[in-house]
Design a protein that fits this description.
Blueprint (H helix, E strand, L loop, with lengths): L1 E9 L5 H9 L7 H6 L6 E8 L5 E8 L7 H8 L4 E7 L6 H12 L5 E6 L6 H15 L10 E3 L8 H14 L11 E2 L2 E5 L3 E7 L4 E3 L3 E5 L3 E10 L2 E2 L2 E3 L3 E7 L11 E4 L6 E10 L6 E2 L2 E7 L2 E9 L4 E2 L4 E12 L6 E6 L5 E9 L9 H10 L2 H10 L6 E2 H8 L3 H13 L3 E4 L2 E4 H21 L6 E2 H8 L3 H13 L4 E3 L2 E3 L9 H15 L8 H6 L5 H13 L3 E3 L5 E3 H17 L2 E2 L1 H8 L3 H13 L3 E4 L2 E4 L1
Parallel strand pairs: 1-3, 1-4, 4-5, 5-6
Antiparallel strand pairs: 2-3, 7-16, 8-9, 9-15, 10-14, 11-12, 11-16, 12-13, 12-15, 17-22, 17-24, 18-21, 19-20, 19-23, 20-22, 23-24, 25-27, 26-27, 28-30, 29-30, 31-32, 33-35, 34-35
Helix pairs in contact: 8-10, 11-13, 14-16, 18-19
Length: about 625
């Protein structure tokens, strides 16, 4: 059964609640004060099932909103998720201030379908009714409620016109595109109460997706986890609710004081609340210009907060103008691209404009910000995804980040990315998607950094991987992938942990090559009775810095081996020591310091560090004051 949400709109005492009751038999005024004062103060709800010409059934959920100017904020909490509007105008009063304001709100929220109803038609004569009809027709001309949208006179008291209204409601509702029940679910909360024997209950209009019994959800903006213990759709128990249905949820793990109107339920660990959104903002023609940095009241679905309007590229937004802007919110909320909103003047409280969210995860202001927002405003899904990925440069975006930024499911995103990936515009690296031109730029940058390193450090074989990654400011995942690409393209080589250009080794000047030879020979000829390193370096012609780099090179190539802070040996001497220890094991598997000194001819100064080195290399194992030769 198709469900459609119908919202009433109109001035106070024009008969909205009476009309809903005449259509559905349900009194939408639920508060004692509403019944006592005879006015609607808060939003009310009712439902009606109508047959279609095709023999199907339509379920209409009515949201009845207050018409008094003092309760426009409550009206806005109900009108945000509607599919079509019934604009109610009393035939004995015609167009009044809240008629205009409610109509403006519907236009700003991009409501596309509706019916205009002239209530209390029994209170005026036919001539007056026709005059009012013509006046209303002129008022609505050129809008979504203009011709051919009908204007229907009715009387909730006598029932006149109600049958025709039901026919037109069925016709309009049949034309409403079904909401996407396969999308990610979001339920803006409009009521919170406690039911004896059940616990905490919330209600709202499910604007997208499906919610199922026993499902766990997240409460935005504070992130509390709740479980759906029970579920009703239009007052009837159900196992699940679909997008477009009035839904009541009995929630476990939460109390009434934890929840309030304006919060939103959504899938666990999927979205992120935001305090800044980039938007396309429209100002009404009848209001004053809006200054940059002005404070306003922001209404989106059932939420309300204070926002600062930061205009892009202008200091003043004139009446009837559109502009890109950033709204900086006093309180975080869950908003996604495509969400509509209303702004009201900070004081006095009047509706001045509205618009659509383009980006709920804005980056710090960038030179091409407005170009990006134009794509968000008018681009197709594939173009939008490419633009979002491109602005992250070589850092890319994970699929979970794209889901959070767009509100689209993983399947939808992967479908729209398939062609850009196939055409090479986007690169898929595991869970990351990256702008291909940015990767090409990073490859060039990495190669240039390595080349510069060779120029600056000719005595070092290459630059360490982590040092290189930090210099190019890339994540580990992206860096590893790009290095692999450069290795595959033979534009880089890796030797251990060192990255260098192909065929590029250490480049030495004549005096540096001579010094290297002197150092190596000094230790090779010394055997195990090695000289102090500082003494060897002190006799070289090169400066201390270059001498130390030469030693570092010899250590990296394992020509020299450092066994303690002060002692360096040539690898030939240590290899010979290993062979002598193996031969000594044939005589006795145990050796003490005295026997080791006799074997090697070294003093205790060398014997202790050498034995500790042999322990580390698992040639020997210390047992008490002796070593066991392994």
């Amino acid at each position: 059964m198709k469900s459609v949400i119908v919202g009433t709109a109109g001035h106070i005492d024009h008969g909205k609640t009476a009309l809903v009751k005449a259509l559905t038999g349900i009194d939408a005024d639920r508060l004692e004060e509403e019944k006592r004062r005879g006015i609607t103060i808060d939003i009310g709800f009712a439902h009606l099932e109508l047959p279609t010409q095709e023999g199907n059934t339509l379920r209409l959920g009515f949201i009845d909103v207050p018409g008094h100017e003092r309760f426009v904020r409550n009206m806005l909490a109900g009108i945000g998720g509607i599919d079509l509007v019934v604009l109610v105008i009393a035939a004995d009063e015609s167009i009044k201030p809240q008629t205009r304001e409610h109509f403006d709100i519907c236009r700003l929220l991009s409501v596309r379908r509706g019916i205009t109803v002239l209530t209390k038609s029994d209170l005026v004569d036919p001539e007056t009714l026709e005059v009012v009809r013509l006046e209303v027709e002129e008022f609505l001309r050129g809008s979504f409620l203009g011709p051919p949208s009908p204007i229907i006179p009715v009387s909730s008291l006598t029932g006149a016109g109600l049958d025709r209204l039901k026919q037109e409601l069925a016709k309009a509702a049949a034309e409403v595109p079904p909401r996407d029940s396969n999308a990610l679910s979001r339920l803006p909360i409009d009521r919170v109460f406690t039911m004896k024997g059940f616990g905490t209950v919330v209600t709202g209009t499910l604007i997208s997706g499906t919610i199922r019994k026993e499902e766990e959800l997240e409460v935005f903006p504070h992130g509390q986890r709740v479980r759906v213990r029970g579920l009703q759709v239009h007052g009837q128990p159900a196992d699940h609710a679909l997008a477009g249905q009035r839904t009541a949820l009995n929630l476990a793990s939460v109390t009434k004081r934890d929840l309030s109107r304006g919060m939103m339920l959504a899938p666990l660990e999927t979205f992120r609340p935001t305090s800044r959104v980039d938007v396309k903002l429209s100002l009404l023609s009848s209001v004053k210009p809006l200054k940059d940095r002005a404070r306003v009241h922001l209404h989106a679905y059932t939420s309300e907060t204070i926002a600062t309007v930061v205009l892009y590229s202008k200091k003043l937004l004139a009446p009837s103008e559109d502009a890109f802007a950033q709204l900086r919110l006093a309180e975080s909320t869950l908003l996604l691209p495509g969400d509509r909103f209303i702004i009201r003047q900070f004081s006095p409280l009047v509706t001045i404009g509205g618009g659509v969210v383009l980006d709920a995860a804005p980056l710090p202001r960038q030179p091409a910000q407005e170009t990006f927002l134009k794509v968000m405003d008018s681009g197709d899904a594939q173009t939008i995804l490419r633009a979002r990925i491109a602005r992250r440069q070589h850092e890319g975006l994970s699929l979970s980040q794209l889901i959070a930024e767009t509100g689209w499911t993983k399947q939808v995103i992967e479908t729209h990315l398939a062609q850009p990936i196939r055409q090479g515009h986007v690169l898929r690296l595991g869970d990351l998607v990256v702008h291909t031109p940015a990767i090409e730029g990073l490859k060039l940058f990495i190669a240039s950094v390595v080349a510069d390193f060779h120029k600056t450090h000719p005595l070092v074989r290459g630059i360490g991987k982590e040092e290189l990654r930090e210099q190019v400011h890339a994540s580990t995942t992206i860096f590893t992938a790009v290095i692999d690409l450069l290795l595959h393209e033979k534009k880089l080589e890796i030797d251990g942990d060192l990255v260098h250009l192909p065929g590029r080794g250490v480049v030495m000047k004549d005096d540096e090559a001579q010094s290297k030879k002197i150092i190596e020979m000094a230790f090779a000829s010394a055997g195990l009775k090695v000289p102090a390193l500082k003494d060897v370096l002190g006799g070289l012609k090169v400066d201390k810095t270059r001498a130390q780099k030469i030693v570092t090179l010899l250590l990296r190539d394992k020509i020299l081996i450092k066994i303690s802070e002060d002692l360096v040996f040539h690898r030939i001497a240590l290899d010979d020591l290993r062979r002598r220890m193996t031969a000594e094991k044939e005589k006795s598997p145990r050796i003490d310091i005295a026997r080791f000194k006799d074997l090697t001819g070294v003093t205790r100064k060398y014997a202790i560090p050498l034995l500790e080195y042999l322990d580390r290399e698992h040639v020997t194992k210390r047992v008490g004051d002796e070593r066991v030769i392994l």
